[in-house]
Amino acid sequence: MKEIYSTSVGAQFGQDSMKDTLYAGMLGVAVIFLFMMAFYRFGGFIADITLIFYVYIVMGVFVGLQAVLTLPGIAALILGVGMAVDANIITLERIKDELRSGKSMLSAFKAGSKRALGTVIDANMTTIIAAAVLFVYGTSAVQGFAVMLLISNIVSLITSVFGARMLTSLWVKSGALNNKPGWFGVKRSDIRG
Length: 193
Description:
The protein is mainly alpha-helical. 79% of the residues lie in helices and 0% in strands. The chain has one domain: Multidrug efflux transporter AcrB transmembrane domain (Multidrug efflux transporter AcrB transmembrane fold). The protein has helices at 11-64, 71-100, 105-137, 140-174. The model has no long low-confidence stretch (mean pLDDT 86).
C-alpha cells in the first residue's frame, strides 16, 4: 500500500477550536439578548436577566462537578440557552396574545403563563428523555454532552419557568405595567377589546 495523503493536527488546533467555539457562543448569546429586548421589550429584559442567572448556575454546577469544559459541553450549554429562550418566548407570546384580546396586564399575565406552562414542560421533558437515552447508549463524548444537556435543561426549566415568572409577576402585581402593553411589544392598535 502506498500513502497518498496525510495530515497531522497539533495541540494548537484544539485550543483554537475551543477559543473559536467560546467566542461564537458568547456572540450568539449577545445576539439573543438583543433580540429578546428588541422584540419583547420589558419581557425580553426579564428573560435576559434569567438567562444570565441560567449561565451562572450551569457554570457553577459544572465547576462543582469538577468537569472539564469540552466542545460537546459548550454545545450543550448553548443548546440549553436556546431551550431557556424558547420557554421565555412561548410564555411572552401567550401573554402578548392575551393583551391583544383586551385583557388587563394582570389577567393577561396569569392566562398567558398558564397557557404556556404545558408546552414548556412538554418540550423540556422530551429533551430530558433524549439526554437520558444519549447517556445510556452513548460513548464518553456523547455521555458528556448528555450530562451537560440534562443539567442545562433542568436549570433552564427552573430559571425560565420559575425565575422569569416570579420577576414578571412582581412587576405586574405592583401595577407599574398597567395600561402599558407596549412594554411587552403590543401596539395599542393591535388590541381588539
